[in-house]
Structure prediction request, 219 residues.
Amino acid sequence: MFEGLPFELQQRISDISKYEVEVQIVKPSAEHLQIHKRVPFRYSVTDLLGCVRKAYYKRYMPKALTEQSIYNFSRGKLFDAALTTCFKDNQQPVLYQCKKSPCQVSGRYDFITSEGVMTDLKTTDKDLASISEPMWEYKMQVRFYADLKGCSQAQIMYVNMQGIRVLPVTVGDCLDVYNFFEQQACLLFEAEQQKMVPQQQKDNFCVWCEYSLECGEAP
Ligand code: SF4
Prediction:
C-alpha cells in the first residue's frame, strides 16, 4: 500500500518505529470549535462543502462534544503529526476573499510535496482497496487549495492503520470551485444578515447529520 508515495513519506514510514508522534489525545478546545464564529463572515472550507443550513446551526447552536467527535478529531491530529510534518510546506492557512460578497473562505492545507503536488490527507474507516475515486467534496477542497497556492497538481491521500492510498485529482480551471464557494458563502452570509435559518440542502449527509431533529429531517 506504500508504493508510489513521495520519498519523504516512504522514509518516514520506514523510520516510524524510531519516530515519536507528539500529539495529545485531548478534547478539542472550545476555541478550536468556535474559531469561525469569532470572525464575522469568515467561513471554513469544510463548513461550506456541506449543507449551509447545517453550517448555520453549527455557528449558532454548537453541539456538545461526543465520544465520536473527540475520536475523529484526535485520529486526524495523530495522522497529521505523523505524516504531514515530513514535508517542509505543511499545515498552512489559506484565505480567499469572495468577489461577490464581503465573505472570506478560510482553510488549512495539509502539505505540498517537494514536487509541488498539493495534498490533502483523509482518514477513513474504509478498506483502502475499495476506494477508487475521491469524494466530490474532497476534490473541490484540494483543487481550491491547489489553485490558491499555484499548484498545477493535486492528490488525496486516504490513510488508516492499513496503509495509504493516493488518488490524483485534476486541478484544471477552477472557476467552478470559486463559483461554488462564493455561492455557498453568500447563502450563509444572507442567512446571518436576516437571522434566518437557510433553506435545507438535503443530501447524503442528512443521514448522519447531528442537526436532523432541529432541521425536521429526522430519519
Ligand atoms: S438534516 Fe440535512 S438538510 Fe438538515 S441541516 Fe442536516 S444536512 Fe442540512
